[in-house]
Amino acid sequence: MYAMLDTVTLSHVARLLGKEGPFDDSVLSDAAYDSRQAGPGSLFFCLRGNRSDGHYFAADAEAAGARAIVCEHPTGAKVPEIIVEDSRAAMNLVASPFFGEPSKRLEMFGITGTNGKTTTCFMVDSVFAAAGRKTGLIGTVHNSIAGETTPAMRTTPESVDLQRLLRAMVDADATHAAVEVTSIGLEEGRIRGTAFDVAAFTNLTRDHLEEYHGTMEAYFSAKKKLFTDGYADRALVNIDDPYGADLYAQTTLSRFSYGVSQPADFTVDDLVQGPHGSSFTARGPGFEAKLSISMPGPFNVSNALCAAAAAHLMGFDSDAIEQGLMNMTGVPGRFESVDMGQPFAVIVDYAHTPDSLMNILAAGRKITSGRLVAVFGCGGDRDRPKRALMGEVAATAADVVIATSDNPRSEEPESILAQIESGLERRLPKDGYRLIVDREEAITDALQNAQPGDVVVIAGKGHETGQEFADEYKIDFDDRIVARRVLARLGWGV
């Protein structure tokens, strides 16, 4: 529970929703869309979801102390009801003013794109911190408020959760925030009322197609919403990416481009890449910085350039940018090394799209003196067509390929592996890859057969700490912990 900038009353919320009527000035203490989170004095929104309907839980919210309910039809509650056409749209409209429009009291950086959001957000946050600012971060790995972290349930939270987090940052005297913005969050209106000073676009490759967007055009259309008036003041766009080039041409915001391979407003010179990082000079309008990052791969050069450009546009000097990026030692689950003294490298990464898998295997190739081993899977209930593509990528880029389970969810893991195999067999004979359903067994197979100088890349889950099965059954599973356990069984680090 956080103190409000202004007292929020039921009558005020009703007016925001365009509803007149006998709504009194009772004070609302919080907002919730899950009846288990409702409490005394709260406002409860009845949301319709794929698996449940919040209208069925209105009585539970009332019993928990909800003072009023926003719903699409009467629920029988004894507390006041505000009836609207779309409860989710109503929640998105109310969320920011309910929590005092916190984004207007913060300097805000937002970033969208298929790959690179998390790393770039961490980089920008590191620059903020290097300049002595108190910061907040909202994203895939965790949420952070003035140095205190909490687990992230989803990359871009529901609108009331997002605004509550931003409000907590204001209450903690934070001045700057970095936020990952997903296409689904944009499509569902979760960031309505959030004002970004700089919004950045990294790239667009296939993701969320089958289960949500349907086509790349619809996916791109969702991403573009961030780069419109009302969401952001300035756009920072990667024009190395074809979709980025289109976005740069289309946005009506004050715009800046960045690119490593294409001429752009912000670009790099004197690039030196090595197995453990890169150094280069970043240049832009009125800007030059000598940057050194300890995160390998050309994609991280692009991420660092984006972070440096964004920080410059937000008023940070070269010293803070150089120091902030130098301070970055890595992001949990992003090309994260598992080292227990073994004579081969073990890398854990979140790569779960064809493009990100290709990038991470290319980075692994640069640091191996032996073979490149890929252990990966594909999530269930998500974008089935990408499975064969990921199989083909692994078969093309790695020397040893082991396909396994990721988060099978409601699907049979064997069925998912069969679809991955359809891509593997385009490039490899049947004896050129292995299919191992059990993920720990697959990791064990890779590590016990690894040779000195090899690089083993375990891809797909990264920072995740659980594995999801049918009926929402979830077990504890962290690739980094499992890899350490297997290495210990093999006699390393003991």
Blueprint of the fold:
Layout: H1 10-16, E1 30-32, E2 42-45, H2 58-63, E3 68-71, E4 81-83, H3 87-98, E5 107-112, H4 117-130, E6 135-138, E7 142-145, E8 148-151, H5 159-171, E9 176-180, H6 183-187, E10 196-201, H7 209-213, H8 216-224, E11 232-238, H9 242-250, E12 254-258, E13 267-274, E14 277-284, E15 287-293, H10 298-313, H11 318-327, E16 336-337, E17 345-349, H12 354-367, E18 372-376, H13 385-397, E19 400-403, H14 413-424, E20 434-435, H15 439-448, E21 455-459, E22 466-468, E23 474-476, H16 479-489
Parallel strand pairs: 1-2, 2-3, 3-4, 5-9, 5-10, 6-9, 10-11, 11-12, 17-21, 18-19, 18-21, 19-20
Antiparallel strand pairs: 6-7, 7-8, 13-14, 14-15, 16-17, 22-23
What does this structure look like?
The protein has 494 residues and is an alpha/beta fold. The chain has 3 domains: 10-98, MurE/MurF, N-terminal domain (Udp-n-acetylmuramoylalanyl-d-glutamate--2,6- Diaminopimelate Ligase, Chain: A, domain 1), CATH 3.40.1390.10; 102-327, 3-Layer(aba) Sandwich (UDP-N-acetylmuramoyl-L-alanine:D-glutamate ligase); 336-489, Alpha-Beta Complex (Protein-Tyrosine Phosphatase, Chain A), CATH 3.90.190.20. It has 16 helices and 23 strands. The chain has an 8-stranded mixed sheet with strand order 8-7-6-9-5-10-11-12, with helices on both faces. A 6-stranded mixed sheet has the order 16-17-21-18-19-20, sandwiched between helices. α3 (87-98) runs parallel beside α5 (159-171) and α4 crosses α10. It is globular.
